[in-house]
Amino acid sequence: MGTSMATNLLEFLSKLSPDDPFERQLHVHNRTQSKTDKLVSQGAVLAPSVADLASACTIVFSMLLNDAAVTSTVEAFLSADPKPGTVFVDCSTVYPNLSEDLSHKAAEKGVLYLTSPIFGRPDAVLAHRGLLVSAGDPAARERVRPLLEAIGQGILDCGDDPRAGSAMKLVGNFFISSWIELAAEGMTLGEKNGVARETVLDFITRLFPGFITTGYAKALVADKFTPTPEDPGFNLEGGMKDVGHMQRLGRESGAPLPVADIVQEHMQQVKNMGGAGLDWSSLSLAVRKEAGLPLSHLQ
User: Fold this and answer.
1) The 6-phosphogluconate dehydrogenase NADP-binding domain covers which part of the protein (predicted)?
2) Under CATH, which number does the domain 167-290 receive?
3) Residue in 222, 173, 175, 181 with CA at minimum distance from that of residue 201
């Protein structure tokens, strides 16, 4: 995901005029340095460490796997004495309380902390079809707005509290994971009663068009759950982390999420079957197994 976002930013920066307020150079860092090779070959500058980003940049984006990675990266960045007024934009999916905590730590260092998670698979983001959230200091949000617009198709403004941006990402992922569960159950019901999955896909495409709804429905019909370099998808364990955050947020805010409980149970079943490396849409395999239907994976 981060590579897709950085590619779009690199394209945007390359077209800037001398009067634009942004630096024309994109600095990139990854804990696995080889993952930056393609961006560097396209003109980005390698930052060997997070500290190098702090010294070179006044706007920084991060896209990381989990809460622990975000915490360690932000703390390393803040300890490197970034310039006062620097804007740090975290695009990761994390628990909202962490965003709140890190925003306070950033403020102590004179850094403005925004949350801007993105909806969309890596291929959709690369095609500028991602939908971004934006939450945090209003002046900082306005400052980075052209960069967010360069990355995706639009921005959901969630106000001045960075915590709300992370909460919105969990709300959105709740809809997406629930949709996968709904499509899997509907296709299974149809197949058990003589209706082909392709027919259900046609129904979905006609009545519920959209790149997420139809994209996942097509994956279920094709049993396309194995990540590839071209389409890494979203792995099952990452999905379980996100749904776990949703469940916790629901409990702590008094908003029960019974559908999320079902989704998590089905993902756990697939993981127990040996499917931890599959896309999270593979939860449909658990639905099919419960119905006694044949499985394309994890026999």
Assistant:
1) 23-156
2) 1.10.1040.10
3) 222
